[in-house]
Amino acid sequence: MCEYASAVQEARGDRYQGFRVAADVAWLARHEVAREVWPGCEWGADLLAKRLPFTALRLYDPQDWPPLDLGLLRAVHSRSIGEVAREAEPGLCVQAQRDGSI
User: Fold this and answer.
1) Among 101, 43, 99, 102, which residue's Cα sits nearest to residue 72?
2) CA gyration radius, the chain
3) What is the domain partition of the chain in residue ranges?
């Protein structure tokens, strides 16, 4: 999280209002060890977003996740646009932070 905090400060120094990060977390569905430590990273990002103008956007396809892990994925995010009915084509779900950014 230190890297993100530094990036936020640099963006503010360049007269931006804040810093946004977009991440495709689909790779986590295939790496069990990474999934085990990942909620701590999400918690750190949430704390950072509470004290700095920082927004994180996560993208994933819920069809790629085991049901229990998908429940955890949903639980650690502040906001979600939810899922929509779709055909068999893979798609993405979008998560956002408390400031409402998607």
Assistant:
1) 43
2) 14
3) 20-96
pTM over 0.70: no
Give the Å distances, CA to CA, from 100 to 26, 68, 72: 22, 26, 20
Token code pair at residue 90: 């893979």
Residue among 83, 81, 100, 80 at smallest CA distance from 91: 83
DSSP state of 62: G
Nearest to 68 by CA among 12, 20, 15, 29: 29
Q: How confident is the model at residue 73, as a pLDDT?
A: 72
DSSP string, 1-41: -HHHHHHHHHHHHTT-S-EEEEEE-GGGGG-HHHHHHHHHH
Residue 50 φ/ψ, nearest 5 degrees: -80, -25
